[in-house]
Amino acid sequence: MVRGSKRADGKVEREERIEKVPAAPMGLLALAWLVPGLGHLILGRRVRAAVFAGVILACWVTGLLLHGELAVPRTGSPFSYLAFLACLGQGAPYILGRLLHLGLGDPMSAGFGYGNTFLVTAGLMNLLTVLDVSDIARGMKD
């Protein structure tokens, strides 16, 4: 927060004050990333947890049904690393999908591009929910 005070010559001196914000527990954030909705559930936000988990898992399932690919990094393709990081944001659904050989993708399928988009979106939405959990845990948000 920045505050100012007037000097005798009428100019305003600025004082900068940095307020310390407590850090969110790392374990809570890890659980919020790993299982969509779990962080909100732990914080007692049941409706939010259900809505976020439902939306993220619906995107994940839709992406798989449209024959999208759970991205993996590929040498020579720098954008594959970005897609991988976005998909990894899904947490356990990504790990489970890779272990069960789901989301291998079918580039010949009409829905392949849309499926990829749904899978990337699911990961990015989950990462946003982790930020939301962090804000709630630190008291920055109701």
Overview of this structure, please?
The protein has 142 residues and is mainly α. The protein has one domain (25-137). Helices cover 56% and strands 7% of the residues. It has six helices and two strands. The chain has helices at residues 26-34, 38-42, 46-65, 78-88, 92-99, 112-137, and strands at 2-6, 12-16. The protein has a two-stranded antiparallel sheet. It is elongated, with a radius of gyration of 21 Å. The model has no long low-confidence stretch (mean pLDDT 91).
Describe the secondary-structure layout:
Elements: E1 2-6, E2 12-16, H1 26-34, H2 38-42, H3 46-65, H4 78-88, H5 92-99, H6 112-137
Antiparallel strand pairs: 1-2
From the structure provided, what is the oligomeric state, counting identical versus distinct chains? Answer: single chain
Termini separation (Å)? 21 Å
Q: How would a textbook summarize the main sheet?
A: 2 strands, antiparallel
The best one-word shape is elongated
Helicity level, as a percent range? Answer: 55-70%
How do the strands of the widest beta sheet line up side by side?
1-2
- Low-confidence segments: none
Distinct helical segment count: 6
* SS elements, strand count: 2
Taking Cα atoms only, what radius of gyration do you get, to the nearest Å?
A: 21 Å
Average pLDDT level:
91
The proportion of strand residues reads 5-15%
What is the structural class?
mainly alpha
Taken together, the total number of domains comes to: 1
Order of helices and strands: EEHHHHHH
